[in-house]
């Protein structure tokens, strides 16, 4: 049903164009509405005049039908390959990712995580920065995406509903080129990507940013989160069994909320707060390989105009200060959080936190 012998079929876009043409041509040829056509016909006295008028009307309808049929035979393949990059061209996105990197038999599989800022330029170019941690092998912050990074997007009408999908190649100075498959939401505000290179099992989520419009007040809210990551076992922690460890890292998770207060000055501890920093407080429950511990923490944050933020927190259960980079997306309704402590800290972590109802006077 709906397919010709050549494998084409009527597409909603084709039908809209055809119907528009039908109305336009009919109006141009008849220059009359159905009511006026009827009135005009009834006012005619001679049968020959009536016959001539009907012939004229049927001629117009016949021409219109021919145009409609011709438009409907547009190649479906042409519609299938229509470019949809306009949905994200010129837009900047916060990205967050996590997964695993297989270094082969000598090293094995290690966890990795990170985030960054990505701009999909017009004409298929990609620019931005990346922050990532790969196990205990390396950690790098704000790596510039290299020239030669590209993307292509087309409407895939083989899917229902139709989706905007494509591929991207993003090059960073440490790991080199990485290839992705991506799907863009129909409003262009969100992107889902997955690595397609051998040895990488990594999923990436992107949300639109508004760089140049942020300050500490952009985070005047409470954010909830449900996060997971990998860490080296602390010296005082019961040693996990071999089956619970991935290349020396054990899993952990935590769930809770953090509150940002731009009107309150940064605390003295953790140290290192830059000028203009404000106050963070939070509470969550941490599961360290199944050992559950409630905790609270305080810290400082500083938001840059480009909607990135540097932050540090110190908890009440004896962990060293945690330093993170934050990317603010969707008008401040969500933030992407990435650990930026050196590999010696033994932490691989990235997560997204979402703004929740926060009623303050």
Structural notes for this entry:
It is built from 4 helices and 17 strands. It has 361 residues and is of the alpha+beta class. The protein folds into 3 domains: 12-79; 85-208; 216-356, Porin (Beta Barrel). A 9-stranded antiparallel β-sheet has the order 4-3-2-1-9-8-7-6-5, with no helix packed on it. α1 packs antiparallel against α3. It is globular. The termini are far apart.
Topology, pairings included?
Blueprint: H1 12-30, H2 34-43, H3 47-72, H4 76-80, E1 91-102, E2 109-120, E3 126-134, E4 138-144, E5 150-156, E6 163-172, E7 176-184, E8 190-195, E9 200-208, E10 222-231, E11 250-265, E12 278-288, E13 291-303, E14 308-315, E15 322-329, E16 334-339, E17 347-356
Antiparallel strand pairs: 1-2, 1-9, 2-3, 3-4, 5-6, 6-7, 7-8, 8-9, 10-11, 10-17, 11-12, 12-13, 13-14, 14-15, 15-16, 16-17
Helix pairs in contact: 1-3
Q: What's the count of strands?
A: 17
Order of helices and strands: HHHHEEEEEEEEEEEEEEEEE
Question: What is the rounded Rg?
Answer: 30 Å
Query: Any idea how many domains?
Result: 3
> Low-confidence stretches at least 5 residues in length (pLDDT < 50)?
1-15, 21-30, 37-42, 73-80
* Helix coverage percent: 10-25%
In round numbers, the mean pLDDT is: 83
Biggest beta sheet summary: 9 strands, antiparallel
> Which structural class do the helices and strands define?
alpha+beta
CATH architecture of the largest domain: Beta Barrel
Percent strand equals: over 45%
Q: What would you call the shape? A: globular
Tell me the span between the first and last alpha carbons. 62 Å
CATH class of the largest domain: Mainly Beta
Spatial ordering of strands, largest sheet: 4-3-2-1-9-8-7-6-5
Number of helices: 4
């Amino acid at each position: 049903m709906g397919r010709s012998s050549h494998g084409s079929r009527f597409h909603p876009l084709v039908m809209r164009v055809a119907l528009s043409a039908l109305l336009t041509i009919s109006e141009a040829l008849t220059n009359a509405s159905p009511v006026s056509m009827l009135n005009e016909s009834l006012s005619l006295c001679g049968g020959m005049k009536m016959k001539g008028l009907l012939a004229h009307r049927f001629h117009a309808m016949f021409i219109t039908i021919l145009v409609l049929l011709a438009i409907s035979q547009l190649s479906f393949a042409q519609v299938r390959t229509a470019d949809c990059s306009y949905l994200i061209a010129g837009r900047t996105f916060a990205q967050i990712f996590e997964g695993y990197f297989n270094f082969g038999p000598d090293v094995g599989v290690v966890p990795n995580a990170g985030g960054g800022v990505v701009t999909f330029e017009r004409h298929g170019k990609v620019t931005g920065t990346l922050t990532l941690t790969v196990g205990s092998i390396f950690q790098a912050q704000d790596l510039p995406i290299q020239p030669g990074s590209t993307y292509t997007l087309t409407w895939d009408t083989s899917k229902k509903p139709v989706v905007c999908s494509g591929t991207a190649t993003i090059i960073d100075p440490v790991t080199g080129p990485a290839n992705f498959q991506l799907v863009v939401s129909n409003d262009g505000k969100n992107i889902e990507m997955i690595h397609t290179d051998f040895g990488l099992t990594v999923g990436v989520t992107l949300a639109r940013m508004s760089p140049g419009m942020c300050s500490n007040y952009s985070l005047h809210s409470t954010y909830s989160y449900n996060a997971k990551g990998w860490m080296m076992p602390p010296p005082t922690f019961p040693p996990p069994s071999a089956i619970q460890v991935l290349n020396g890292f054990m899993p952990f998770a935590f769930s809770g909320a953090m509150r940002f207060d731009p009107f309150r000055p940064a605390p003295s501890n953790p140290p290192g707060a830059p000028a203009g920093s404000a106050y963070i407080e939070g509470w969550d429950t941490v599961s360290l390989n199944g050992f559950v511990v409630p905790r609270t923490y305080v810290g400082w944050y500083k938001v840059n105009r480009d909607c990135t933020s540097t932050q540090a927190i110190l908890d009440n259960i004896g962990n060293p200060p945690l330093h993170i980079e934050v990317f603010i997306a969707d008008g401040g309704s969500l933030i992407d959080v990435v650990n930026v402590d050196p590999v010696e800290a033994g932490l691989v972590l990235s997560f997204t936190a979402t703004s929740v109802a926060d009623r303050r006077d």
